[in-house]
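Researcher: Can you fold this with 1-O-alpha-D-glucopyranosyl-D-fructose in place?
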Amino acid sequence: MSAVIYQIYPRSFADSDGDGVGDLQGVRAHLDHLVWLGVDAIWLSPFYRSPMADFGYDVSDYCDVDPLFGTLADFDALVADAHALGLKVVVDWVPNHTSDRHRWFVDARASRDADHRDFYVWRDPSPDGGPPNNWVRAWGEQPAWTLDPATGQWYLHLFLPEQPDLDWQNPAVAAAMHDVLRFWLDRGVDGFRMDVLHALGKDPALPDDDPELLPIPHSALNHHRSTHDIVRNLRGVLEEYDGDRMMVGEIFLLDTALVATYYDGGEGVHLAFNFPPLYAPWDAASWQVQVEAVAREIEPVGWPSWVLSNHDQPRHRTRYGSPARARAAAVLLLGLRGTPFLYAGEELGLEDAEVPAERAVDPGGRDGCRAPIPWDATPTHGWSTADAWLPWPPDADRRDVASLRTQETSILHLYRRLLTERRTSPALTLGEQELLRAPDGVLAWQRRADGDERRVLVNFTGEAVSDGLVGQSTGWAVRVSSDGRGEAGPFGGTLRPDQAVMLAPAVE
Ligand code: TEU
């Protein structure tokens, strides 16, 4: 619960073999960066065998490493090194769909009575010969169904046609997928990030969706009640193992009250991603609504999580629009009660890459946030080629790891100080949280545990603020400031524009 989890998108992290695509040995070679930074765990986006229609979220073999990323031996070596360095390893698991090249689907489409036919969701055409219902797939208004001409039926895919949905009502599917979890648990992984977990249970009648609510992720098809039983059984698999094996569910429902239901009284997910804050604009009132919603809906039933960026969304540095805001956002993310998820590169203040049309590759238009990580200021940025699979992010020769490490004032050092402060303060890691009444444009809260206390003030405005609670906080000392100024001194009672601070009671 006290961990900070760092997401690695393996294609974009670090390349060890010169093909311009990151790989597991690349990750292994850079674990020292993560230890220096001070995170507790890594989450690896998919590295399984895949035709890469969705860059690994279309898995053709759940129990092997794609040659692009290395081998199972590389994976084992990575886990061994990570564990030796005190880092936990969480892996992605993609249960809603396989690749259309997975041997189950290859078999399933061979004939209507194939062994694996009912691993997937097949239906006859509607009376007019069209798709069986009105569901649409992600990324566009096209049907979530594709006709298989050879067998005359349509198969369901909430994502690409290359990602047929598994039928979780079939106990054989659950059993096979549970074995996938055991395969990785036996190899020593500490947990799973479970992809589109809320979508596993579908209403067996597959009713038309409310056209008002289409498309994903708001539609009813995404949270059928049977999903909760499926999730409880997944939790049961984790609990067959000793140790703290955890699961974080990607619950892509933009409603915190619904997200909260997946904790299921301690029998569901350990953590659920709650995306509404990620969609909130950079203003204090919006963030207050989000923090209150989490306090109201999630805190009573489970431990919250916080995330500002990932491989599916424009980076928050890009969304919020300025370096100062990205720094203030780091204080926000690491000061709130719950498990923070960092997305590789946010500690460098990276913006999304500008990806010209001829280099765009993702069917979901998400290339910008997946730009490769610059490790140094040379033209190849620590990769073996300047032509990585995607263009570099802006200012890659200034926002690279090596350059920022030499600058104490950099955002990278800010993240490191925040992570140290968090780790050494019981109030910040596990403490209670109370929102405080603050002047307009400022979000303020207090954390408390075992006599330890911290106060966080975030100025969301471009103006200095010194009234109300801000001016009254002069009895506190600055532990970390987003602009790096005044740390270890008394708080002067003014927040500079776009400044956020972590405060501790001043020592007498
Ligand atoms: O994402 C689920 C999901 O709902 C997103 O695709 C979302 O709709 C979109 O990105 C918003 O821009 C997960 C993975 O995180 C994503 O990378 C995969 O493409 C998707 O599932 C399918 O596996």
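Model: Folded with 1-O-alpha-D-glucopyranosyl-D-fructose in place. The radius of gyration is 23 Å.
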